[in-house]
Amino acid sequence: MVVKVTLNEFEDYYSVTVEDNGVGISSEEQHKVFNPFYTLARHKGHVGLGLNIVFNLVSQVLGGTISYQPSSLGGANFRFTLSKTREEVDV
Question: Where is the Histidine kinase domain positioned along the sequence (predicted)?
Answer without folding.
Answer: 1-86
